[in-house]
Amino acid sequence: MNNKLQIADKTFSSRLFTGTGKFSSSALMKSALLASESELITVALKRVDVQDKDDDILLHLNHSRINLLPNTSGVRDAKEAVFAAELSREALETNWVKLEIHPDPRYLLPDPIETLKAAEALVKKGFVVMPYIHADPVLCKRLEEVGVQCVMPLGAPIGSNKGLKTQEFLEIIIEQSNVPVIVDAGIGSPSHAAHAMEIGADAVLVNTAIAVSQNPVEMAEAFKMAVQAGRMAYQAKLAPVKNQAEASSPLTSFLN
Amino acid sequence: MAAFETHFNTCNWDDTLASINAKTKADVEVALASNKRSLEDFKALISPAAKPFLEQMGQMSRELTKKRFGNTIQMYAPLYLSNECQNICTYCGFSLTNKIPRRTLTDSEILKEVKFLKNKGFDHVLLVTGEANNTVGVNYLNNAIKLVKPHFSNISIEVQPLEQNEYELLIENGLYAVLVYQETYHKNEYKKHHPKGKKSNFEYRLDTPDRLGKAGIHKIGLGALFGLEDWRADSFFTALHLKYLQKHYWKTKYSISFPRLRPHSGGLEPKVEMTDADLVQLICAYRLLDEDLELSMSTRESETFRDHIVQLGITSISSESKTNPGGYAVEPQSLEQFEISDERSTEAFTKMLKNQGLEVVWKDWQHFN
């Protein structure tokens, strides 16, 4: 069974994507990210100095397994997002970008209108666009139409650790999507990650739950295993959920 | 759209203070148990009735702060550009009638100070001036922002209130945040402490954050100067202001600062004392009110206090600050706006943070335009 995930020109063995924020040191971040076996790791452009070869965060992410996924966190509209993506393509030599436009600084909820505009422009400029969005099935189809290579709907607000509050809509997105669906934001525990994979998400992105744990390295490994277990369960097809008990010796079996 | 003044005028100081002091243990318990806290809950959390719950508030504040901000702390440095001032403020070292040498930094002097701060590692800077519109007006500020922009990712100002179009100009040239403290929300006391100069206009200052919001500023810093009036009532009005602004200017981020009166030349003794425990209670109460709010601390506070408060809700902090223009490199001996308390070097201070398991964040912003 081919269990690899393909996005644009890259193939991933790990379906756990991770982030770099909130760790208590860059060294600890690196240990945790290596333990997670994650191959795609997002980094906020506003947090690093892309012109600086000795940037502490970037130095710690320099590893053969790690693909950098620059994100546009901090931009407020499509124009700023495109500017940020172009800056990162030039400085970090990757055309991959996690498109995050959240003009609301409190809940960091994504702006669907600006995201669609920016996605369309960036695809035309040759970017691999991974948009962070609400769990909005129609928006996902619209993004697919403009050529994004995956969609990243949220499970709950970023950093909230609340799990799949948007499950009903995630299921519709997964059912309808022709591009990989990555559940981003809100995943607070390995069981949430397994849950997302069980309902058919192609991958999950986890940051806060690992970084803020008492033991980020062990937590990273726990997420790795949970994502693998969830994926395996999805492929093995879960037994259906029943509302009532079902007798193993049915009353009408004598009729057969 | 009505400005905050209209909203503010519906609240009475004495009634507010009485209702804070009337909060009971049961009110505090309700506030602590809630997961979406109101301004009434905030009143309970800053009330005397919440004092026995301080440890619990501290634990909760720490957890919420960690969840949102992680194990990190943002560093910033104030850069005083001028001590010229046309205002009389009873508590300030730069007050018009204080006989001190006045100085406004030139371009080359500003760049000397910038170099000092860059060598220390700072990437977020706060430009500070008094209010002297002939020498330190919007043109001077605009020039200063353009001058320092190549050197800092994030530029804030703490200067006289400006007009909306003036803010728009500064934002276009790289301004990120404006700190404008009301000092006190007690209108009559405000007039006593600001008898002369443009600052004596209470309402103009009160509506400054509205002008900033309309100008599209990224961040507004609010606060009261503790010691002028009752800190509980002033903090309630600050929180009221915050909630109003968050609803009206939803793209803007907010931060709160907690200045307590410090000694300075020409000094004023605090009328109302705020103890260390009071300040901890207030910081935790803000965190319980709003888990995303930036809470900022200066070097006004002591080493011991700062070493502990970084685990209790504070997310942004300065170190080794100088509150006199030219204080870092140009003229270190000139007279300060107020005495700082924690005089440790930035190296020593950040080492302390790292030893506590906090990642020191220097850069967390970039202009993408």
TrEMBL record, chain A:
Keyword check for Cytoplasm: yes
EC number: 2.8.1.10
Predominant cellular place of this UniProt entry's protein: cytoplasm
One record GO biological process: thiamine diphosphate biosynthetic process
Signal peptide coordinates: none
InterPro entries xrefs: Aldolase_TIM (IPR013785), Thiazole_synthase_ThiG (IPR033983), ThiG (IPR008867)
Catalytic activities: [ThiS sulfur-carrier protein]-C-terminal-Gly-aminoethanethioate + 2-iminoacetate + 1-deoxy-D-xylulose 5-phosphate = [ThiS sulfur-carrier protein]-C-terminal Gly-Gly + 2-[(2R,5Z)-2-carboxy-4-methylthiazol-5(2H)-ylidene]ethyl phosphate + 2 H2O + H(+)
Molecular function terms from GO: thiazole synthase activity
Chain residues that bind 1-deoxy-D-xylulose 5-phosphate: G159, A185, G186, N207, T208
Entry keyword set: Cytoplasm, Schiff base, Thiamine biosynthesis, Transferase
Domain Thiazole synthase ThiG, first and last residues per copy: 6-250
Intracellular or extracellular location(s): Cytoplasm
CDD domains linked to this entry: ThiG
HAMAP family: ThiG
Similarity comment text for this entry: Belongs to the ThiG family.
The protein's role, per its UniProt record: Catalyzes the rearrangement of 1-deoxy-D-xylulose 5-phosphate (DXP) to produce the thiazole phosphate moiety of thiamine. Sulfur is provided by the thiocarboxylate moiety of the carrier protein ThiS. In vitro, sulfur can be provided by H(2)S.
Protein name as it appears in the record: Thiazole synthase
From TrEMBL, chain B:
SUPFAM superfamilies: Radical SAM enzymes
Keywords, alphabetical: 4Fe-4S, Iron, Iron-sulfur, Metal-binding, S-adenosyl-L-methionine
PROSITE patterns: RADICAL_SAM
One Gene Ontology term of the molecular function aspect: 4 iron, 4 sulfur cluster binding
One Pfam family of this chain: BATS
Gene3D superfamilies, per database record: Aldolase class I
Cofactor(s) named in the record: [4Fe-4S] cluster
GO biological process, one term: thiamine biosynthetic process
Domain Radical SAM core intervals: 71-300
Name assigned to this protein: 2-iminoacetate synthase
4Fe-4S as UniProt keyword: yes
